[in-house]
Structures are given as C-alpha cells and as structure tokens.
Design a protein that fits this description.
Blueprint: H1 3-10, H2 18-35, H3 52-59, H4 61-80, H5 86-101, H6 107-126
C-alpha cells in the first residue's frame, strides 16, 4: 500500500460523546429549517422573480413583510402537522400561489390573498398548539 493510504487507514475517530452530539444536532436542525423544501413556504429569492406578482412583492416592503409572515406561520404549522398532512398543505400553498398570480400587479389583491392565507394557516396552527 502507498504510504498515504496507510496513514488514512490508521486514522481513528473519537466516539461521539454528549458534547460531540450537540453540534451535530444543531447542524441537523439548521439544515431542516433552512434547506428543506417543505419549509420554504412561498418565500422566494427576488433575484429569480419573474412573475408580475413576485416582482411587486420584491419592490414593496409591506408585501415583503406579509410574505415573510406567511413563511413563518407556514414553517410553524408544517413542523406540527402529523406525518402525511404536509403534502396537503403543499397543495394548498400551490393553490394560494396560483390565486396570487392572478392578481398580477394589483397590490390590494396580493395583500388580501396574503392576509387570507395567513389567517387560514393561523387557524390551522391553533388546532395543533
């Protein structure tokens, strides 16, 4: 065996103790909260906004705040749902996006869609808290 392989083969890993598990658990939680598809709700990166409603949301601080609020309520709800109900929530969220898209650049319409959806999710969240 080449010397590099021998050195690699002799490396021993220290067992994970209680303090060693905390960073691993913290990283797992961070990945779930920031990277899981279901937890993204409808927040989107404004660099990739190409629909009229998305562009307006990116330009309008009030609508951006509503988008963040919706994403927050969505995350709290999806974390409390029983297994399997997340798919239904995703379908409902897709229907919300379609309805919001029909608003085009009409700010009042977009705002109302957000307020209605946030209220729906908050009511659903009340069933699990």
């Amino acid at each position: 065996m080449p010397p590099v392989v021998e050195r690699t083969a002799k490396v021993e890993r220290a067992p994970l103790n209680k303090t060693g598990l905390f960073p691993v658990a913290a990283l797992a939680v961070l990945i779930v909260l920031t990277g899981a598809k279901n937890l993204d709700a409808q927040s989107f990166n404004c660099r990739y906004a190409h629909h009229r409603d998305e562009k307006l949301i990116c330009k309008d601080p009030g609508l951006a705040i509503l988008d963040e609020e919706l994403a927050s309520v969505y995350r709290r709800l999806i974390l409390r749902l029983p297994r399997g109900e997340g798919e239904r929530l995703d379908r409902d969220e897709e229907a919300f996006v379609v309805a919001r898209r029909y608003c085009g650049e009409q700010r009042a319409c977009i705002e109302q869609k957000y307020r209605d959806r946030i209220r729906e999710l908050q009511q659903a969240l009340g069933n699990y808290e």
